[in-house]
Amino acid sequence: MIGQYLFPNLDITFEKFAEISDWKRGYVVWGFPVWKWLMDHGAYITDFDTVDYEAFASEGVAGLKRTAAPAEFEYVEKNTYNLELESKRVKQALSHSNFTYIRRKTVWNDVLEEFNKPGICELTLNSRALKRESGFVLHRVVLIDITNTKVVFHDPNEDSSGAYRREPLEHFRKVFESADGPELARYSLEKK
Length: 192
Description:
Blueprint: H1 2-6, H2 14-21, H3 32-40, E1 44-49, H4 53-59, H5 61-67, H6 70-79, H7 83-94, E2 99-103, H8 108-115, E3 120-126, H9 127-130, E4 138-146, E5 150-154, E6 165-168, H10 169-178, E7 184-188
Parallel strand pairs: 1-2
Antiparallel strand pairs: 1-7, 3-4, 3-7, 4-5, 5-6
């Protein structure tokens, strides 16, 4: 959805991004190769996260483990095809002139502020909590609209039922804020 939003004339498909990211069914999709592709095509990315990407890039898995929230690290370690390879890919994002990294815990006001800037936002949260279930599954969603009562978002899932999904603002915000390390990324063609 982000690729189509930013570059509607490039006919971006899920399959194209799956190829770029070297996606393997059943494993976590890391965004770093896709981010590099987007930035190489003129997109600017601002990312808020608690993970120390520099430590992940320089120390590998040990740097990620030291700085990621425990539940998040356990999930990605168990569900990533080649976690050490991702530590190498993060270096490409960090060194790109179109990438801005802000290392701190994201709060709801950050979401509102970034959402109201040019571009499109995506964030990570616990999809089990979003479904009102127990457990932890790290998941990215793309924000479409935020009103006083609801959040409308694209939830990429296997059965394709997540387009224009709606949740009450109070529940969505609670799920986001309850995460140990919520991540927020804004993609734009304007440097702001």
